[in-house]
Amino acid sequence: NSMCISAVSVVLFLFILWMLVVQLCRLTDRQSDGDAKATAVPKLLHSLSKRFSRTLSPSLSGPPSLPLLGNMLDVAQEHLPIHLTSLARRYGNIYRLNCGNTTMVILNNSEIIREALIKKWSDFAGRPHSYTGDLVSSGGRTISLGDFSEEWKAHRRVAHSALLRCTRDSLHSVVEKQAHHLCQVLWDYNGKSVDLSEDFTVAASNVITTLTFGKSYDKSSVDLKKLQDSLNKIVSLWGSPWISVLDSFPLLRKLPNPPFSRLMKEIARRDELIGKHIEEFKVRMNGQMMQTLTDTHVHMTTVDLLIGGTETTSALLNWTVAFLLHRPEVQNKVYEELCGVLDVRYPQYSDRHRLPYLCALINEMLRLRPVAPLAVPHRAIRNSSIAGHFIPKNTIIIPNLYGAHHDPEVWDDPYSFKPERFLEGGGGSLRALIPFGGGARLCLGEAVAKMEMFLFTAYLLRDFQFLPASKEEPLPDLRGVASVVLKVKPYTVIAHPREQ
Ligand code: HEM
Ligand SMILES: *[C@@H]1O[C@H](CO)[C@@H](O)[C@H](O)[C@H]1NC(C)=O
Ligand SMILES: *[C@@H]1O[C@H](CO)[C@@H](O)[C@H](O)[C@H]1NC(C)=O
Ligand SMILES: *[C@@H]1O[C@H](CO)[C@@H](O)[C@H](O)[C@H]1NC(C)=O
Ligand SMILES: *[C@@H]1O[C@H](CO)[C@@H](O)[C@H](O)[C@H]1NC(C)=O
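Structure tokens predicted for Steroid 21-hydroxylase:
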């Protein structure tokens, strides 16, 4: 018993040390500002570690890994997609990081990502198991976090066909209604400078709740607020180092951990809220989505669609407005195209082939700010290879979509915002554009997201011109904050109605 206690205190000590180092790195990182992520502390640690480092995967290079911590310092970097991309400059388009007893392999280029996710989909369709992931997903029973299995395949197939049926039958009118509503809300602001993120979130989440519960909510709705609140808290708590450390150091699970208790409480609250909505929905039975799913899976599918479909779409709309504030001429071009092609009518999704500039704008946004910049980690379910390197079973694969979308080999001037690159002859490669991943784990909501992006952007730019809140305030910062979803830093904007 006393041995157990001393083991716990050793681990606790190491944990505190680790947290300190992580904080220190973050601090020095902030001071050094900009893209130059090679900071003094990690460099020192890296050079110290060289003498201890063991190479787990001799065929793949990567930054030297520390004893016990491995490359966890790299993984704890603030803007992980940018950090991983800068590591690729040193270690190549495929390299490894060690994390505890698992090896992670980072893919930085779209051909390599396509090889792993599409060509060899059956080798890499797994998801890593983790202690906290299992808790969040009721033992891996969501589509997004569930590992590859017969049960998962059936679950995904049913959800996919239900979603396809909805997309065909009613999605257009559902999205149209939310787009109209969103424009109405913006009209009512009367040219005041406002923060639109909440309105975007409400619009995106109403599309999903209409499909799943047959119900949409007002911005002031307490039910909606509770649900969004709970999902946001779960996502951000789950991403915090206090929680993720539990995956690598099981002994720490025995210690009191306030963020962890909050996470468990939120999970219970989420399940209660969603359970209530589903019950209500069963009574009314006029939603279209769930009729073919079994009870056991309805609940977690709802979580999947709400989490996957709300923050992503609203973050992308938010990015679009942020970039357009920097580039007013792009707004005008979209507006002129809409007026020229449609006259006064609102667009339909079927008009997209006649609106190439609008589509180019959406593609450019998906390229520059893929809102799921590192997709979701995959796991090798058998021995395989990528780009000629041996990849043993259980390796974690991280597709760096952000890196692939900034690859100078594929994109001219990859860091600049140029919708024209996606016009005919503009040189943009639709093949290399992979914001939704691919293969067995392709984003389940791709079709939904594309229609939402098209209609929301078209409606907004037809009715409004977006202007900076004031001349003094700086334009929005375009670097963003990367957690699970890549987001813009807070800013406000004026939606000025267009003369019709
Ligand atoms: C702009 C919007 C969106 C983007 C950029 C996006 C991107 C992604 C990406 C990169 C993945 C991971 C693929 C992988 O593991 O390789 C993913 C998974 C997923 N997305 Fe989306 N997504 C978007 C919108 C949506 C919407 C609207 C929904 C729901 C209606 C949705 C539901 C899902 C689900 C359920 C998964 C898990 C799929 C699986 O593991 O099999 N997403 N998404
Ligand atoms: C890593 O260690 C955990 C226990 O900490 C164990 O459950 C897991 O199977 C190990 N993974 C591999 C790939 O060896
Ligand atoms: C997978 O590779 C490992 C070497 O890392 C080897 O020991 C094992 O036998 C291989 N398994 C199969 C099924 O080929
Ligand atoms: C990885 O991607 C980044 C950005 O896309 C690029 O600058 C770098 O050259 C790539 N790495 C290699 C080895 O090509
Ligand atoms: C975009 O999102 C951030 C929060 O993530 C918010 O503060 C900002 O105001 C949003 N911008 C717009 C135009 O909604």
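The pocket of protoporphyrin IX containing FE (ligand 1) is lined by residues 117, 143-144, 156, 208, 304-305, 308-309, 312-313, 316, 370-372, 375-376, 399, 435-437, 441, 443-445, 448-449 (CB under 6 Å).
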